[in-house]
Request: fold
Amino acid sequence: MFNGTDKRYNQFSAHLKNKFGAKVYKITLDAGFSCPNRDGTISKGGCIFCDDGGSFSQAHSNLLSIEDQVKVGIKNLSERFKAEKFMSYFQAFSNTYKPVGELEKIYNASLCDERIIGLSIGTRPDCVDDDKLKLISGYKADYYTWIEYGLQSIHDRTLKKINRGHDFDCFLRAYEKTKEYGINVCVHVIFGLWENHDEIMQTAKKLAELKVDGVKIHQLCALENTKLADMYRAGEVDFMSEDDYIKTVCDFLEYLPPETTIHRLAGNGFSKTLIEPQWLGKKMDCLNKIDREFLSRGTYQGVKYL
Reply:
């Protein structure tokens, strides 16, 4: 149904293969960035779910140069997945949280191989400005360029509870400014943040209204050395079941425009530090169940969009 596949949602990997005519994989990179929600600029401690790796789960680290991380990534992804083309993906922490001059050197270093066709930069909406967006938009002519914003929820009450450090209006301003520069935007959301079903669907409907280019869905999970792990051990939180997650994913996608690419629905690279929920580590099992849920419903991404 999408990109010549039998998927009932607009899978980003299939979109890339359709666009570039080859298997495209992201090379996750750690450039040693920090975060204003951890270093004391906004607050200390960061989001309650964030660990010391800043959502970075790869074997290599920022002890390697960016160029060496790219080389290692290309070698591993080529051998393991037969990947032919690649995107440089700055994942760990807030990857616009440096002066523009430093950012340019870092981004340029990641484009050191002719097989690199794209650039994706994960960051916070309070870590961008016109100068940074102008720099990033300058890569569009030669590379498929994305910014990934961690939103998590449109509800300020939820953002405050997870110690996000910004509100929804901050995201809206950053999103609108980013679109003015013609940059593709992928929005991260988290399920299981003590919101009811209607509140989660309100986030879906707002993202549909904004016609976001991409969405990445996460399930709230407790990792070692996080505030959330402490809360879980104190009996203060519980987590969404796999069955509820699968149904909620399908409900969410039904509201999104068919054009919105879906960058993530399942999987977790934190198996060594994952506390709960344990079902989260079974990526393919979860994806297959999402496919079967859509099939049993007879629906697909965007069926409720209009």
Remarks:
- The longest helix spans residues 66-81.
- The mean pLDDT is 93.
- The chain has one domain: 12-297.
